[in-house]
Amino acid sequence: MPPIDTSPEIILLWALLGYIIGSIAFGMVLARVMGLGNLRSIGSGNIGATNVLRTGNKKAAALTLLLDGAKGAVAVLLARAFAGEDAAQVAALGAMIGHCYPIWLGFRGGKGVATFLGILLALAWPVGLACCAAWAVAAALSRISSMGALAAAASSTFFMVLFGYGEMLLLGIALTLLIFWRHRDNISRIRAGTESRIGQKG
């Protein structure tokens, strides 16, 4: 097996490839293909699974969730296979940024929760599973999707340390900050008691 090329040029290439993979807007694609309308004019106007659910189509929402998670995982696994762990982490960050700020949607993308969880499952599955559990518990207790997202992100670096993935901490911090930044309006609505509940339309 030939040695893995970890030159800066290759690492940068994987960051770009991760961005391209991450910027595929599956929510928009599925909404158009399944005749659900323009997501920008529905609910929060977001392109993620939570807003797709507001169309009333649970199948489309589930597919969006799975595909948005899968694209983060694919970016990581491809980079790891061809260029090693450093490239995998860089591709992970690229995929997350691509989902949140896709160039072909005017840098107006999603909030990155499914992609974040897909990335963690591919990078370190114990951390990913623990964060999925944190999301599920917080979302179930509060009936607020964004609460689940914030809980998963806030706990991710703790789980990285707990399960022995300290080399991922910088990436974990970056992803957590990005999740919180993308949810800044949700945080304001949670504080005001006006945040939408899971399954609520409009």
UniProtKB/TrEMBL annotation:
Function: Catalyzes the transfer of an acyl group from acyl-phosphate (acyl-PO(4)) to glycerol-3-phosphate (G3P) to form lysophosphatidic acid (LPA). This enzyme utilizes acyl-phosphate as fatty acyl donor, but not acyl-CoA or acyl-ACP.
Organism of provenance: Sulfitobacter delicatus
GN (gene name): plsY
Catalytic activities: an acyl phosphate + sn-glycerol 3-phosphate = a 1-acyl-sn-glycero-3-phosphate + phosphate
Transmembrane segments: 12-31, 60-82, 88-107, 114-138, 158-181
Topology within the bilayer: Multi-pass membrane protein
GO cellular component: plasma membrane
Associated pathway: Lipid metabolism; phospholipid metabolism
Keywords associated with the record: Acyltransferase, Cell membrane, Lipid biosynthesis, Lipid metabolism, Membrane, Phospholipid biosynthesis, Phospholipid metabolism, Transferase, Transmembrane, Transmembrane helix
MF terms in GO: acyl-phosphate glycerol-3-phosphate acyltransferase activity
Protein name listed in UniProt: Glycerol-3-phosphate acyltransferase
